[in-house]
Structures are given as C-alpha cells and as structure tokens.
Amino acid sequence: MTDLSGRTALVTGSTSGIGLAIAEALGAAGARLALHGLAGDMEVHDAVERVRKAGSPQVEFFPGDMRHPDRIAELMAAVAAWGGADILVNNAGIQHTAPTSEMPDEKWDAVIAINLSACFHTMKAALPRMAETGFGRIVNIASVHGLVASKDKAPYVAAKHGLIGLTRVVALEHAATGSAETGGVTANCICPGWTETVLIEPQIEARAKAHGGDREKGVADLLSEKQPSLRMSRPPDIGALALWLCSPAAHNVTGTAIPIDGGWTAQ
Ligand code: NAD
Fold first, then answer.
1. What's residue 1's pLDDT?
2. Residues 42, 48, 49, 52: what is their CA dihedral angle, to the nearest 10 degrees?
3. Does the pLDDT value for residue 10 go beyond 90?
4. Architecture of the 8-193+234-258 domain
5. Which of 8, 135, 141, 200 has the most CB within a 10 Å radius?
6. In the chain, where does DSSP find H-type helix?
7. If you measure from the C-alpha of residue 139 to the centroid of ligand 1, how many angstroms do you get, rounded to a whole number?
8. Residues spanned by CATH 3.40.50.720 within the chain?
9. Is residue 244 very low, low, confident or very high in pLDDT (cuts 50, 70, 90)?
C-alpha cells in the first residue's frame, strides 16, 4: 500500500472523469487534495465530497481557467499558499474533432492552451519546490494520441505529442534530483485509449447516429476500429496507475509514456 500521508497533490481537471478518479486514488492513500476544474458549484461540491469520502484528510477546490496563463499563475500561487504540491497531475483537457482544413482557429488555440501550454506553466511553477525537497511526482495525462495519430484531431494529437516531449525534457532535467530515500523527482505520462468519461460522448453519439441511435453499437463501432481489447478503460484504472507512479517504488521510473489502451498502440 502506498502511503501518501503528509503529501499534497494538485490534480487539474479533477471535478469529473479521469481527474476525479485520480484524486480519489491519491486521497485514499492519504494525500491532501487540491481539486481544480471548470465546473459549477454542485459539481465542485460533489467532487470534494467524493475525495473526502475516499479518505483524503484535507480537500480544497481551486478555480482557474487553463486557457489563460494569468489564471494558472493565480492557481499555482493559491496552491503554494496552501502548502505547495508534492504531486502534480496535469489532467485538464478538451477535445474537438474536425478535418484540419475545417478546424476552427479558436479550437486549435484552446486545445493547445489547455492540453499542452497549461502543463508547461503548472510544471514551471511546481518544480522548484520539488527540487528543493528531493521529492516530486509529475503525472501528465497524455493519450494514445500522444503516441499515434487519428484523423480529424489535429490540435489534440499535436498537443498530446507535445506533452510527451515536454515531459521527457522535465524528466531529464530532474533525473538526478533527490535520492531513492527522498523519493526523487519524476515526470511521466499516462496514455489512455478509450476511457468511459463525458469527453468522448460526442464521438460515441456520432457513431450511434450511424446505427440508428443505438449507443451500444456506437461504442462497439468506436472500439473495434482502434482498441483490440474491445472494452473501455474505467477512470479508476487510470487512478491506480497514477497512484503507483507516486509510490516510493517508482522513484526510478521517469520520462516514460505508459499506455492503458487495450492494445491500441501495439498494432
Ligand atoms: P472530462 O471532460 O471528464 O474532464 C476534463 C476536466 O478538465 C474537467 O474537470 C474540466 O472541468 C477540466 N477543464 C476543461 N476545460 C478546462 C479549462 N479551460 N480550464 C480548467 N479546467 C478545464 O474528460 P476526461 O476524459 O476525464 O479527460 C481527462 C484527461 O484525459 C484529458 O486530458 C483527456 O485528453 C485525457 N484522455 C481522455 C481519454 C478518454 O477516452 N476519456 C482518452 C485519452 C486521454
């Protein structure tokens, strides 16, 4: 069992989906949790309650629109004042699908800002404290689309490929920081394939439409195209890997991009 008591984790985009499941996993291991996201009061309240119930000794929500570097700076300053993040999970993300020739410029800008540039800004702010204490864990939620491409996802694929490259740079810069005893400072990506969250709902609906509105057939269609296991991952599956990456045993695991994709990238 990984014991994270005394550690503080910031999970961006943790009001729903994969981020919330990661926050629950880290909270169950005893970490203080800084939750974050673009969400209404009810959603924030529910997320805080879930992470508290999972076992986190202290849970607080911090707002901040990841499209804007100024808002990110405010978020990171607020978390620093709350004790500072020993664990940073960059999870907030959006998707927009369209052929490249029809991709709206503002969608390109938003996907790159949230899925890539925001991760640079949060890491830049969080790394000095990690270097000082000799313990830090950066877990960036990339995607199979950080490793391979699909059509109609230009900004998303560019952002996720960029995030894996960025994570490798940070991993190399901090590879020799700390020790096995302090835990070291590591930076890794998790690369999910299809995972059951609202993010992929528009893509499921589009496939369902082609099958007379049958959602199950839409999901089966989506999976059969790319994900050989023919089943989706569940958010807690990603949470379990994030937790392991935060464990003492993972002190020498850095610069990796680990797929949870039912064989998608093995093809
Ligand atoms: P989700 O929509 O449930 O979660 C996205 C989170 O990001 C939410 O908490 C939301 O509030 C936050 N967010 C969105 N825009 C924001 C903004 N401008 N500022 C601040 N926060 C913002 O979706 P999810 O599937 O849980 O996605 C989480 C991560 O997992 C994303 O980075 C996504 O790319 C990645 N991912 C998801 C899948 C999948 O199949 N669901 C597959 C691969 C990778």
1. 86
2. 180
3. yes
4. 3-Layer(aba) Sandwich (3.40)
5. 141
6. 17-28, 41-54, 69-81, 105-112, 118-133, 154-173, 201-209, 215-226, 235-245
7. 14
8. 8-193+234-258
9. very high
Cα-to-centroid distance, 14 and ligand 1 (Å):
8
**Ligand 1 atom showing the smallest separation from residue 235 Cα:** 26
Torsion of CA 252, 255, 261, 265, to 10 degrees: -120
**84 is known as an active-site residue:** no
Buried b or exposed e, range 151-186, using 16+ CB within 10 angstroms: eebbbbbbbbbbbbebbbebbeebeebbeeeebbbb
Q: Which of 35, 65, 199 to mutate to test the pocket of ligand 1 (most atoms within 8 A of CB)?
A: 199
User: For position 117, what pLDDT does the model report?
Assistant: 98
Q: Residue 29 C-alpha to ligand 1 middle, in angstroms? A: 23
**pLDDT tens, 117-155?**
999 999 999 999 999 999 999 999 999 999 999 999 999
Structure tokens at 44: 């924030």
